[in-house]
Amino acid sequence: MKTFVLNNRDLGIEALKAFAAILVMNSHMSAMYGKYAFLATGGAIGDALFFFCSGYTLFLGKIVDFPNWYKRRIQRIYPTVIVMSLLFAHYHMDQIQYVIKANLGSGWFISCIFIYYAILYPIRKYFSSHLNLVLCFVGVITVLWYIFIGVEPKSACNIYGATFFKYCFFFMYMLFGAICGKKYFEKTTKIYRSMISLLATIVSVVAFYGIYVYTKQNNLESIQLLSLLPLFGVCYFLWNFCESDFMIKVVHKKIIGPIILFIGGLCLEVYLAQGLVFTTKLNCIFPLNIPLIMIGVIIVAYFVRSLSRFLLQTFQQTNYDWKAILRLI
Question: Which residues contact 22 (CB under 8 A, 6 or more apart)?
Fold first, then answer.
């Protein structure tokens, strides 16, 4: 089995992150779809993929002491968060306090991943050889959380919606990514053929939406927990597809490969920057507005990442490395 790495980046994971970025974008575009708003979906899958990729990469490389380990996570994320807060504040000066508060950590996604990072460190240091048991333990915690704490009424029978409950269960996908990453680089896991992986991904997606839609329409919130299972399948089989020989050959193509790596590298920035670009002014040219707005989001995300790198280097003693600031891939 081959390991496909370029510039210390796993090509399969970068492709998976590109899928995550596109799905998360699409899930927030209901206003742009107009009467076809039901097509604005994929957010739960995109979030699960993002956490999967995070867990996958965080268990690679050397382990250092917690302060320095956490510092690296802050350096990667918070310059982008600060830049986004300033940009949003420019467009919403009347709500500047709310905007800065929301973007600096009160928003569920940023606060969630930093909580996960803090919990993940001792797990990696002391329980790295028992990740399967840890995953089962978090699964039990998820069920107990639902039984004794429940989901906020404002979630409207949607465990993936406006609820603190997702702070709990999404951690399972980060752990699952760590398990897959460890096994892959220890060469103890099997990567399936691309067609098998793609078909299994489709089946998992259909199962996920089948359970989700049925339970939401019939107000069966407790049964909706079952949709977490095919979501594991989506992560696993889509990762297998991205690591397959076929997909790696695609990533090595001169045009499409750099585009995939470019989008994958902007996964975080796309998540944070999309609100700056979304507009209904192009709805008159639907469906062309959808890809045009997505391209706009990716361009703005690159601009934000460059500014965040500039901000980070500003507080370092070395001279500005403009190539690193403007690097595409």
Answer: 42, 46, 263, 294
CA 122/CA 311 separation, integer angstroms: 30
List C-alpha distances in Å: 64 to 59, 113, 224: 12, 19, 39
pTM of the model: 0.92
Report d(CA 225, CA 44) in Å as an integer.
13
Tell me, rounded to whole angstroms, the distance of Cα 138 from its chain centroid. Answer: 19
Query: Which residues, other chains included, contact 286 with Cβ-Cβ below 8 Å and sequence gap of 6+?
Result: 32, 33, 34, 36
**The two structure tokens encoding residue 177:** 């990514």
| 8-state DSSP, 102 | I
Sign, Cα dihedral of 161, 167, 172, 176: positive
Q: pLDDT (tens digit, 9 = 90+) per residue, 168-203?
A: 999 999 999 999 998 888 878 877 788 999 999 999
For residue 5, list its beta bridge partners. 10
